[in-house]
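Lecture 7 notes: from sequence to structure.
We start with the chain below.
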Amino acid sequence: MELKRYNRQNRMLVAVDCIIFGFDGQEIKLLLIKRGFEPEKGRWSLMGGFVQPGESFEVSAQRVLKQLTGLENVYLEQLYAFGDPNRDPLERTASIAYFALIDISKYEKQLSDHFHPEWFSLKKVPSLIFDHKEMIQMAKEKLRYKSAFQPVLFELLPAKFTLPQLQNLYEGVYESHMDKRNFSRKVLSTGLLIKQKQKDKAGSKKGAFYYKLDKKKYKHLFNSFLKFGPEPGKI
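Predicted structure tokens for the same chain:
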């Protein structure tokens, strides 16, 4: 006889949660929304929803992100599966967490206000539902680990940026001060940056030169051992 279901097995719900990091040129931020249903209705939350029949986890994450924020064509990377039996007080639910890196200015017009998404500084994240704080902490650790060896943080930058902006970004991710000269020397030594003639004079009269990312070298070196930041064990 053909079996259509596994016998005597409990069922559970599967959800996806999206951790969206953005950069505004000064600091790294996190995108949150207010939860629209019980339990915990009205509290700040990551973008989340349930996986539908016929969806892969990634497709589900992309759908949820578009429905709740209007964002699409955003790079998402699977982070971890959170499966504590008591993580959702209403029903047994496992969550597959994803994180993404975006340039806030690039997606500002695309962002929908239907569910009132709001950017928060990582230094001032409000109280969150369930285990979302744990998800964010794990995503931050993963981001630090990856950015120590790969130029992944360039995903957060606009087409043209200055070295002070780039340093602000790395200092925000690592939550530590970096020596200006050493940082500039290390970054420029990769050969990934193309110096522009224009300057950003918003910060000082002297101004800072703009740079662009050499996309061909970026793709070629992305999986190379570059040592951009501190060693992962020293974070």
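Points to note: The chain has a mean pLDDT of 88. The helical segments are 57-69, 104-107, 132-149, 163-174, 180-188, 215-221.
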